[in-house]
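User: Let's play a game. I give you a shape written as tokens, and you guess the letters that built it. Ready? Here's round one.
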């Protein structure tokens, strides 16, 4: 079974923002803006909620969502807050885009990563246990990247929807079954 660990989306409002003013005008539980460290404004609409990073260019990124629904709800609430401040019209034409959905999954059994790296094809795999404990698998003709750990835990990234992650995981399971049968 696959579950979402993090969903990330972004949008360009099409207007430049005075991020210091946005910070002072929004009454939120968490805001951080320190342009000497980083030029983006960090904010959360609810404590421990998804993080929104806002840039002067009018672009923003929402991360830390555990569902796609939460990602879209956070986007809607943020646009409403900006609309209430007359910063932007919530009905602007630019579209919110899901950029990355990070999912996790679990294989039924532990995996010998040395053997699996050969079975998956060395041209599609990076495995350097001295540098990183997992195997990095980039299947040919697939946008997803899978991190495979010896305990069978899988992290799937690089897709913009859960279906992409499910497809990548299914492909990996088939490869693992083939290598187990040999």
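Assistant: Ready! My guess for every position:
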């Amino acid at each position: 079974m696959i579950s979402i660990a993090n969903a990330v989306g972004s949008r360009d409002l099409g207007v430049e923002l005075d991020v210091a003013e946005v910070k002072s005008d929004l009454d939120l539980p968490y805001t951080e803006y320190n342009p000497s460290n980083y030029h983006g404004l960090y904010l959360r609409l609810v404590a421990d909620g998804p993080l929104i990073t806002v840039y002067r260019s009018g672009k923003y990124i929402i991360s830390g969502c555990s569902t796609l629904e939460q990602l879209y709800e956070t986007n809607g609430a943020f646009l409403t807050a900006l609309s209430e401040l007359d910063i932007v019209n919530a009905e602007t034409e630019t579209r919110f885009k899901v950029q990355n959905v990070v999912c996790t999954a679990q294989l039924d059994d532990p995996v010998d990563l040395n053997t699996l790296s050969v079975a998956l094809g060395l041209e599609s795999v990076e495995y350097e246990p001295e540098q990183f404990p997992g195997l990095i698998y980039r299947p040919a003709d697939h946008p997803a990247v899978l991190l495979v750990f010896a305990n069978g835990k899988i992290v799937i990234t690089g897709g913009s929807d859960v279906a992409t992650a499910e497809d990548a995981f299914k492909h990996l399971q088939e490869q693992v079954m083939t290598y187990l049968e040999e």
